[in-house]
Amino acid sequence: MVSSVWDGSDGWQPSELVPLAPIPMHPGMLGVHYAQVIFEGLKAHRQEDDSIAVFRPWENALRFQRSARRLAMPELPTEMFIEAIERLVAADESWLPAGNDELSLYIRPIMYGSESNLMLRPSREYRFLTVAFLAGGFFGNLPAPLSVWVSRTHSRAMPGGTGDVKCAANYGPSFMAQQEAAAAGCQQVMWLDSEERRWVEEMGGMNLFLVRGEGPDAELVTPELTGTLLPGVTRDSLLALATLMGYKTRQERISIDRLRADCESGVVTEMFACGTAAVVTPIGRLRDEKSAWTVGDGQAGPTTMALRDRLVNVQHGRSPGPDGWLHPVRVPGTVR
């Protein structure tokens, strides 16, 4: 793992690459008590020439800084974030085999308030860590379409809150709704806005898209960024790739009532979730406390799978993507 510390006098100290091991924690550590914790998630992929590259790490570095600002934490310099990723991937790349698109090196940077103090104020000491592990598909290889629970009781975020940053406090409160989803036979939760409980926002750790129409006339639609949902890197990547592939794209507010009506009438032909872990995962069915409805024929649609294939091919260097999306990592002792 890569580790660095910060304090108000000396700022960020040079990072160190050290063996993965437990870290002693004082019971009064401020970050644990007051949720001053932020994190990121990104992946490194094996390339066609057996080299390794990280997908869009600069975007994660910038989002990490936005999250830090929102929680009154010190910003980690972009170069320090990227250096930590490079050092860790170079050290761990041997765990990632060639020839398996479903495996990647999942990278988890985290920063937390580490000061031992129960005063209700921002920490004056912080630790930044980056760890990695070998990961397969979040829902398995080529997953079956998800069943999704529409939560009309719980809220993930509110206007003026922290819904558009990646902080730990956004995730623990979502677990109750996830348990309700599982009890209803669903794998994921769809969150609605907290004010009207009408507008579709995102899913548990994933953004979502729907497809209106089919074939070359298909339109890709995703909820607009209102400050209460996370601006996902995969979401942004799919909007860009969809345009390159000739699809129309739209970001708009989507009401749950219209979504259901459009699914039942056939206007909405496909839906999928997307994220660093989930990549692109089809949605086949939605339900709430009173009813259930199917998206299209309930199976993965052609537009969904075309976008998934294009994204995976870009991540592995087989298809061209916009400049700068792949960040190569040099592994000492290799010549490529």
Automatic annotation (TrEMBL):
Q: Which family does it belong to?
A: Belongs to the class-IV pyridoxal-phosphate-dependent aminotransferase family.
Coiled coil location: none
Q: Which PROSITE patterns match?
A: AA_TRANSFER_CLASS_4
The regions listed as transmembrane in this protein's record are: 128-150
Describe the reaction catalysed, as an equation: L-isoleucine + 2-oxoglutarate = (S)-3-methyl-2-oxopentanoate + L-glutamate; L-leucine + 2-oxoglutarate = 4-methyl-2-oxopentanoate + L-glutamate; L-valine + 2-oxoglutarate = 3-methyl-2-oxobutanoate + L-glutamate
Which PANTHER family has this protein been placed in? BRANCHED-CHAIN-AMINO-ACID AMINOTRANSFERASE (PTHR11825:SF44), SUBGROUP IIII AMINOTRANSFERASE (PTHR11825)
Source organism lineage? Bacteria, Bacillati, Actinomycetota, Actinomycetes, Kitasatosporales
Name of this protein:
Branched-chain-amino-acid aminotransferase
Keyword Ligase recorded: no
Q: Which domain of life is it from?
A: Bacteria
The protein's enzyme class? transferase
GO annotation, biological process: isoleucine biosynthetic process; L-leucine biosynthetic process; L-valine biosynthetic process
Q: Name one GO molecular function term.
A: branched-chain-amino-acid transaminase activity
Q: In which pathway does it act?
A: Amino-acid biosynthesis; L-isoleucine biosynthesis; L-isoleucine from 2-oxobutanoate: step 4/4; Amino-acid biosynthesis; L-valine biosynthesis; L-valine from pyruvate: step 4/4; Amino-acid biosynthesis; L-leucine biosynthesis; L-leucine from 3-methyl-2-oxobutanoate: step 4/4
Q: Has keyword Ubl conjugation?
A: no
